Amino acid sequence: MERFTGIIGILLILGIAFLFSNNKRRIDRRLVLSGLVLQIGIALLVLKVPAFNQFFQGMGRAMQKLESFAREGVAFVYGGLAAIDANGNAVNYGIAHVFVFAFNITATVTLLCVLVAILYHLRVMQFIVSMVARVMHVVMRVSGAEALSNAASAFVGQVEAQVMIRAYLPTMTASELLASMSGSLACISGSILVVYANMGVRADHLIAASLMAAPGALVISKIVFPETEASPTMGTVKLDVKSGYTNLVDAITHGAADGFKISMNMIAMLIAFIALIAMVNWGLHHISPGLSLDTIFGTLFYPMAWAMGIPTADVHNAATLLGQKLTINEFVAFRSLTNGTVPIITQKGLTVVSIAICGFANFSSVGMQIGGIGSIAPERRTDLAKLGLKALLCGTLASYLSACIAGILQ
To answer: What confidence tens digit (pLDDT) does each residue in 266-301 have?
Structure first.
């Protein structure tokens, strides 16, 4: 019966979304049901169909291979510095199998951003996004703008996805804007996905999480904020985004610069948040010995972790990871998961948790998104600020919904 506990989670998630709906009578039931069917279909393909599962596992191995290519560049830059290997010995950083988070992550993210820029310049990325968007548009009957945005969010960063629909942002309805923001928070970019895969998380689980979150975010956002206005892009899916780069070399240089900026932002956030966690835990321990943020998260998120169908042995630790992801960020949650600080011992628990915490939905990302999209469409900044917390709710619930479905199939 534990397999079907996730059904309780699905009902709970949809119930929460319905509770926060601003117009319960206008909820499009067909859109909700078709979105759920699409999520289930993606989960079945990635997790249960051998040919697709092997394909996505192969993609995971390819992602890990990219990390070895990135090392070639970073070893040249940092080679000669001393690093500590797995045995505790000081060795040259340039040799294989030595990992320093700041150096390795910078290299991997920078290389992936360069590859994305190349694909963008060659219009390959636009083609992939438009194909995925057409499927979502046909199945769910959502507008072209929100289909394109959510499809893009499964491949690129949360602000980059909005760049692809820059021309539509000024005229998008409030419901479309929320759907777009929610998708960007629920999904995860390809460059960050590779980082987590190289940290030890199964790549097929990460890919499933990001792909499932695209329709999932539309399902939740359209319950929370049903469409009541006429959308200018209803019935059309048109993505005509030009490269913006002068040539291939220009794409590579811009991609490298963007990758380095993203890496520095990641490193800064991790330093700040992990230091703050240590400071808060120190204070909590002095209030009550043994009290920490992990114990608080484990208690607050326990009901949701249980409802997802996570095995009893892992529920408390899974709840802790859910809390870390939402209130701090997903980097900290994945770090706790992969380094054993907050271990998950069952395979089903690992699958469900990996999908549940795979996404950008956290408080700091909301601020980044409002600032990023606001710079693209300044006239919508007020609307973005009003919808920020709703988008956080929708993005979080979308990831949880994907996790519940994956748990049922395990």
So the answer is: 788 778 888 888 899 899 999 999 898 888 999 999
DSSP, res 212: H
Taking residues 263-267, what's their average pLDDT? 80
How many angstroms separate the CA atoms of 326 and 311, rounded?
21
214-223, 242-251, 295-304: which range is least confident on average? 242-251
In a 3-state reduction of DSSP, which class is residue 83? strand
Q: Are 342 and 321 in contact (CB under 8 A)?
A: yes
Rounded to two decimals, what is the model's pTM?
0.85
C-alpha 319/C-alpha 206 separation (Å) is 19
- Other C-beta atoms closer than 10 Å to the C-beta of 352 total 31
Mean pLDDT for all residues in the chain: 86
Cβ contacts of 356 within 8 Å, gap of 6 or more: 308, 318, 321, 322, 325, 399, 400, 402, 403
DSSP letter (8 states) at residue 240: -
Our CA angle for 51, 52, 57, nearest 5°, is: 100
Phi/psi zone of residue 302: left (φ > 0), alpha (ψ -120 to 50 degrees), beta? alpha
Rounded-to-integer distance, Cα 360 and Cα 201, Å: 16
Between CA 191 and CA 292 the distance in angstroms is: 32
> Which amino acid does the sequence have at 27?
I
Q: Which two tokens stand for residue 78?
A: 């940092």
**Residue 351 corresponds to which tokens in the numbers above?**
């699958």
pLDDT tens track for 121-173: 888 877 877 888 888 878 888 888 888 888 888 877 776 777 777 778 888 89
Q: Could you count the other beta carbons within 10 Å of the beta carbon of residue 262?
A: 20
- pLDDT at residue 85 tops 80: no
Contacts of 70 (CB under 8 A, 6+ apart): 104, 107, 108, 110, 111
Please give the backbone phi and psi of residue 387, each rounded to the nearest 5 degrees, phi first.
-95, -5
